[in-house]
Amino acid sequence: MLNFRCKQSPNDNPDALAGSHGWVEIAVNGGNARDRLRLDYGVKVEVKLECGAGV
Q1: Residue 26: how many CB atoms within 10 A of its CB?
Q2: What gap in Å lies between CA 36 and CA 26, rounded to an integer?
Q3: In angstroms, how far apart are the furthest CA atoms of the chain?
Q4: pLDDT value of position 52
Q5: C-alpha–C-alpha distance, residues 12 and 8, integer Å
Q6: Residues in contact with 2: Cβ distance below 8 Å, sequence separation at least 6, in sequence order
Q7: Are strands 14-18 and 3-4 parallel, antiparallel or unpaired?
Q8: Per-residue pLDDT tens for 1-55?
Q9: What pLDDT shows up at residue 44?
Q10: Separation between Cα atoms, residue 44 and residue 21, nearest integer Å
Q11: Which one in 23, 32, 34, 50 has a CA-CA gap of 20 to 30 Å to 43?
Q12: Contact status, residue 42 vs residue 36, Cβ threshold 8 Å
């Protein structure tokens, strides 16, 4: 599961970010999202947005 955040996450936790060119960018604080999630460039992913407390 990815978190959609505007603040920094704990290390090794994947996050989804809204990029400046309109793409969803996946990042891992203190790591490499490509390696952590075993994905390659251009791979399609499904993004599920959930709203909850603190969002």
Answers
A1: 19
A2: 11
A3: 32
A4: 61
A5: 11
A6: 14, 15, 16, 26, 47
A7: parallel
A8: 555 554 566 677 788 877 888 888 888 888 888 898 898 888 888 877 776 655 4
A9: 86
A10: 17
A11: 50
A12: no
